[in-house]
Write a structure and sequence with these properties.
heterodimer; A: Four Helix Bundle (Hemerythrin (Met), subunit A); 6 helices; 79% helix; B: mainly alpha; Helix Hairpins; elongated
Chain lengths: 175, 99
């Protein structure tokens, strides 16, 4: 009995890791394509894959509400906003103009250095910290926390969104 | 699963986003790279929230998503304004404050 439970737990563990690896690979490849492709529309479509992969990781971490919000807000709204921005600035429809080799090299150097530093720090601190997710977070707990403990932050975010809305209209409006 | 696999994935995505911010000249591409960075931060927040079994991680991930939406709205409006004034969204040309 114990053995069977342990075996099924192990299977779950393997399945989670396989899904994690596949999604992480898709996310990293599409993020790389997103920042290196010359076509801006293609970059926006690669970004969709990165965001969808992040939503899948959120589900794997047991927080469906964040995953649903990610799909609704990012893939539903922000990508459409990006595509409209690309269409309105029609000079960039084709190729992104050439990137200076030196600049690209320095940027790659900075990114690799940052990755090495963060990787060493993370491996040093959390090398064998197990993550046990026995049950998903419930919607109710999240909403209770937002509307009790974090109510001030929530109201501040609503004012921020209103300010951003008005600001975007004022900035982008024709005289 | 171990916690570190999520943290390392987020770190790699963060570095890819930093590369995009530094290397691209197109204003819209820079905004997209910032989105990749914010997403990696969200993965970190949710992973730590699941690790400590606390809702704070998810709540702050939701706040980050809301702030990112506001940021994209304002950022695209600014890029649109730069395009309208200069007929180009090459950020290396927008150097009026450089002196």
């Amino acid at each position: 009995m114990m053995l069977a439970a342990a075996a099924s737990g192990g299977d779950l563990f393997v399945a989670q890791n396989v899904f994690f690896g596949a999604i992480a690979l898709v996310m990293i490849v599409s993020a790389l394509r997103c920042v290196t492709t010359r076509n801006v529309v293609h970059a926006a479509l690669w970004l969709v894959l990165v965001l969808a992969g992040a939503a899948a990781q959120f589900i794997l971490l047991g927080s469906e509400f964040v995953a649903v919000t990610q799909v609704l807000v990012y893939i539903g709204a922000i990508i459409v906003l990006f595509l409209f921005g690309i269409m309105l600035t029609k000079a960039s429809m084709g190729d992104d103009d050439s990137v200076a080799g030196e600049k690209r090299l320095m940027a790659a150097l900075v990114a690799v250095l940052l990755a090495v530093v963060m990787g060493i720090a993370l491996i040093d601190s959390y090398s064998d910290t197990r993550l046990v997710i026995d049950e998903p977070q419930r919607f109710g707990e999240v909403s209770d926390a937002i509307f009790s403990q974090y109510i001030v932050a929530f109201e501040a975010v609503s004012v921020l969104l209103l300010a951003a809305l008005i600001g975007a209209i004022v900035v982008a409006r024709k005289e | 699963m171990i916690l570190n696999q999520f943290l390392l994935l987020a770190a790699i995505l963060f570095c890819i986003g930093v590369y995009g911010v530094l290397a691209r000249r197109n204003g819209i591409m820079v905004l997209m790279s910032v989105e990749i960075i914010l997403n990696s931060v969200n993965i970190n927040l949710v992973a730590f929230g699941a690790f400590r079994d606390h809702v704070a991680g998810e709540v702050f991930a939701l706040f980050v998503i809301a702030v990112a939406a506001a940021e994209v709205g304002i950022g695209l409006a600014i890029v649109l304004l730069i395009y309208r004034n200069r007929r180009s969204i090459d950020l290396t040309e927008a150097d009026l404050l450089k002196g």
